[in-house]
Amino acid sequence: xxxTYLASIGLxxxxxxxxRTKMFCACPAHREGDDPNSHxxxxxxxxxxxxxxxxxxxxxxxxxxxxxxxxxxxxxSAFDRKNYFYPDMPKDFQxxxxxxxxxxxxxxxxxxxxxxxxxRVNHIHLEEDAAKITHLEHSxxxxxxxxxxxxxxxVTEPDMASPDEALAFLTALKEMLLYAxxxxxxxEMGHMRADVNSSVRPAGADxxxxxxxxxxxxxxxxxxxxxxxxxxxxxxxxxxxxxxxQETRRWDDAEGVTLPMRSKEYAHxxxxxxxxxxxxxxxxxxxxxxxxxxxxxxPAARRARFVQDYGLPDYDAGVLTASRATxxxxxxVAKECDNPKAASNWTMGEVxxxxxxxxxxxxxxxxxxxxxxxxxxxLDAKTINQPAAKExxxxxxxQGGDPDAIVKEKGLAQVxxxxxxxxxxxxxxxxxxxxxxxxxxGKQAALMFLxxxxxxxxxxxxxxxxxxxxxxxxxx
Length: 476
Ligand code: ADP
Ligand code: MG
Ligand code: ZN
Fold this sequence. Notes:
Blueprint: E1 5-16, H1 56-68, E2 72-73, E3 76-77, E4 80-83, E5 93-96, E6 103-104, E7 107-112, E8 115-128, E9 132-135, E10 140-143, E11 150-156, H2 163-179, E12 192-202, E13 212-217, H3 220-239, E14 248-252, E15 257-260, H4 263-266, E16 273-274, E17 281-282, H5 285-293, H6 299-310, H7 314-320, H8 324-337, H9 340-358, H10 369-380, H11 386-399, H12 403-410, H13 418-431, H14 433-440, H15 444-457, H16 464-475
Parallel strand pairs: 13-14
Antiparallel strand pairs: 1-11, 1-12, 2-6, 3-17, 4-5, 4-16, 6-8, 7-8, 8-11, 9-10, 12-13, 14-15
Helix pairs in contact: 2-3, 6-7, 7-9, 8-9, 8-10, 10-11, 13-15, 13-16, 14-15, 15-16
The structure holds adenosine-5'-diphosphate, magnesium ion and zinc ion.
């Protein structure tokens, strides 16, 4: 992008809430893999006369999201009907919140190259999801399992100034939602979908430019790519003396372009009106406070605490708290081995490496925090050296087990016994007269070479520090 234009991006993010049942009935909430149309009832099929009842857990999770981002919680909120005809909505209206949403305002802080920046949130409201339609060549299939699943919509102000900032916002939001178990945030399953609004304006202009909206994006990478394309497209129009048309577009991932949607695809006259079958939602302030108290510690607070309590560098704290599972794992190891920096190094290093190499999550491996803590203790007690520890780690990661037993079984205990070390040292000295002469002539590097020979002779098990001391004693 040329520096003469500034970009503004606003997101409308839909999040599928993690609840047991649907928004207004007792049907199980949508889960992937269930038989199509196996979770339906008169309410979510919109049969005449069926009445909705409110899902309290969906309200709790929406309010908790608002609390996490500093929204003002509406103690009275209400539902509205958004009327439209499409087979994905059997009632011919969607129950949503138009005038009195549950959460108002708030913001999410992201890191940018220029420092932290807060992306303001306009509001968060609660609504029901539509059914899932699969368009076939000559027909369409509708699965009503997803119809009326609780959906939370979070609308930002147009505060993001680049595709990177939009990505940082989505990543930070996802991190919070996962921490607090608001949603499983599985993007492949469509748990997070966004409408992406963007505009450009000449630097110095005091009003935002005309925006377009890219509908229904469901990968972060796709959003980043779509924004790069769309902002460049808008800039090219302005550069050519044309104007941007306010319209709804869609992202063609294969072609890497955004295209206007046919106007039929988004023509709406929703005629919102208050939902007559649901009373307003009234929340007691004590209940909101209880829900706040039930929130877990959030990533930013946890990061600060890791620096404070464990004396970790900012960098370590950031990596470890990027996922709750990793942070929990690290903390369990650190508490047990009493060496937080080693716990951090092992978690950030070997653990994350092994996980990514084997494409697993912590839940998949038999490695426990208890076993890693025991391994670190063996290292700290100098019972084993670093190469042996890595060997034990790999076994723990693949098969689990007890580090002490593995060390014994594999004969990995470090050779700290002076007699044995002297034997290796003497052999090294006899076999390398040139290095011995170099060392005596003052070359320190020659000693390192001899230590290497001792390590080799001991098949990596010698304690390197003691090996150096033994060699010196014999040579001086
Ligand atoms: P509507 O009522 O048409 O849906 P909203 O005011 O609710 O419009 O805005 C929808 C989204 O579009 C919000 O995320 C908002 O931040 C974003 N948006 C609004 N105006 C602009 C603009 N000029 N440039 C970029 N994003 C914008
Ligand atoms: Mg809107
Ligand atoms: Zn139902």
